[in-house]
Write a structure and sequence with these properties.
two-stranded antiparallel ribbon, two-stranded antiparallel sheet
Length: 485
Amino acid sequence: MNSLKRALLLAVVAIFALAIMAACGAKDTKNGSASEPIDTGLPADTISNEAFKDLFPLQYESFNATKDMSDTKYGGSVPTSKFDQSKEPLLPILFNGYGFALEYNEDRGHVYANEDIEKIARINDKSFGSCLTCKSTAVPQLLKEENMGDKYWGANFRAEVLPAAKEMGHSPIGCSDCHDPQTMELRVTRPSFAKAMESQGIDISNPTKNQMRTYVCAQCHVEYYFEPEKKEVVFPWANGFKPEEMYEYYETVAKDQGFKSDWQHNISGAPMLKAQHPEFETVSTGTHGKNGVSCADCHMPYERSDGKKKVSSHNWTSPLKNIEASCRTCHADKTAEELKNNVESIQDTHKDALDKAEEISVSSHYYVNKMITAKAPAAKIAEAQELVRKAQWFWDIIAAENSTGFHNPQGAMDSLKMSSEYSSEAIILATEELVKLGVNVDELKAEIEKATKAVLAETDNFKKKDHATNTFFPAQQPPATPAKK
């Protein structure tokens, strides 16, 4: 290639790269808009979404569209009529002894956040303030010293925190959670995120605008636990964002703090971890995150309404519902149908692997239960319990994540593979010990199938958990430990 051709090729590549960066939002401007500064005239402590209605009608209208969201094949929030847990009927087994076995529903729009947390069965009279942290616009105000301060975290949810939030006139996950009410600059309002990023040595004090378009989402779409003493929300990120790095954190830093587990499993007696919704961690280690694509680029695409000015959609949902604006700004070489098929193909593969890992995890809990009732050596039982704990963690961190594998396809498959391997190790270990004790393994398998079918056959979601244990598989603890939201 001669020098002229080489120069032309480099120029084309450079222009293409700049176009992609512009389309995907990978800019390096500092936090804030390049347009004229905004002065809303609102008080700094504004927390009501309705206060922004007349100032930003298009954004407000799109936010309220989350009240009635059409479903996609693998989520993206569902209409009210589908608000139940029938899609995952084995969860009352995997979460037995914990609040998630009581009620674990399909996702709904953010506008329902306060309504749903107040009504869901796993939030009870013993739940504490931390449960409201990512649901209410009142939380940053409640955390101020002149209000509840650090007492917020461990205060009683129903008796203290929720009444205080209502008195302030709070709204569900809204404008002031992500924007300064006076200037509309993007901001981080949840201290747990800032502390967790600092634990990795990441300074968020002067982020780019594109980083902020992810950070505001990452305040809540993450894995977390409650610190044992204060009950403060903590993100387990000091070792990194990968499932194995977070698990190592739980085995070291969290245990040093006194956090051993979220609950003791009612079937296996294992000390368990409940994964939350780690979208930020997952996408950060996937292709889009590594290439500077922000959450807002895909989930809040720019739109025009009736020829009016371009605005960022606040109808937070699956990009597959608006492929032209969400996906084809970068992937213009593919049709909308091709992109949809590509995404769903990835999701189909992951859903299949997820279901298989789930089934073998269910069996492993029952094998350990039989080890306990057959009086296998305590050290062997503990070893098997550690395996089922790890297996369910590597399954749940993918099951609880809302992209069905798409945010990081390879990482998700690796995690599900590890889950199945740990469950298999637990079953092999249990089988070896049970055979020594003269237990009929074929009978054990038949009883596992019987218990599983009893859970599946129950039509009342609130009663499914009751069929997970029986005289052959007796409960290993009193039910049910209060759950984190």
